Amino acid sequence: MPYPQTRMRRLRASARLRGLVRETELRCGQLVLPLFVSETQQAHAREPIATMPGVERLSLAAAVEEAGEAAALGLAAVMLFGLPAEKDARGSGAWDEHGVVQLAVRAIKQAVPELLVITDVCLCEYTEHGHCGVLAGDGATPTVDNDASVELLARTAVSHARAGADVVAPSDMMDGRVGAIREELDGEGFADTPILAYSAKFASAFYGPFREAADSTPAFGDRRSYQMDPANGREAVREALLDVQEGADMVMVKPALAYGDLIAAVKRATDLPVAAYNVSGEYAMVKAAAAAGCLDERSTVLEILTSLRRAGADTVITYHAKDAARWLAQERG
Fold it and tell me: pTM above 0.90?
């Protein structure tokens, strides 16, 4: 019926009415908190990251404390990124059974067994050149060797599963790595370990603060030969479908805020659980604007996270996770 019989404002008149008809729900159990665990931090040390206010490089003990807080707030999981004491050309610290991530997984699972631990599977934090795989060729323009890198990524994923990781998440964007990881996990007795594939990971300007936090800026060139062109949407869906064929249990779109269309498209195409990574640059923008008094941080963060859920994300990985959990608890109270 046309106006005046149809009045869309009727169901917006009160908070209870708005809640009654709300289409998208945001819950603590849908949020994942990334943690940077540093092998060089001592005891309970925490090193602030200048470009990411409120985020720190953590010692092993401090990471366990953060995991306990995440569990107490009702968050679903933490995602671990390792900062090793030493790096080399092959990134061998990534699959070291006594590496920083492997030690952190064991410690967190012992202290907070109910909390899910997801591990980022990549070589960029461990290679002296900062690329996500091993290099081939010499001279001024070496390239990342896809197949040699895949072998090492699969080895890394198995070491994480052996340490007790609940989910492994390859972020490198090498072709074929999901299938290789699935085969290696199954062969080593970890058939029940899920793979969360960074399926549509774009060569984005929004990663700058992360690269400072993880000390993973490439020493030369960039990652555009393996991360995706931000202009390509159909290719993102194709990447996700290939990962599904190779055995991914969940797929991811990264970054999140400028890619809601692709979160929706990947969700429709795969019908798998979809994660969105609300990345460091997106976090830093909100923090900077809030500090300058340009916007209200709480309402902005909750609106962004809700928009990602509305686009189709089942899970949101976000540095805002702890604050968002507190704000959601206050709303419920």
Answer: yes
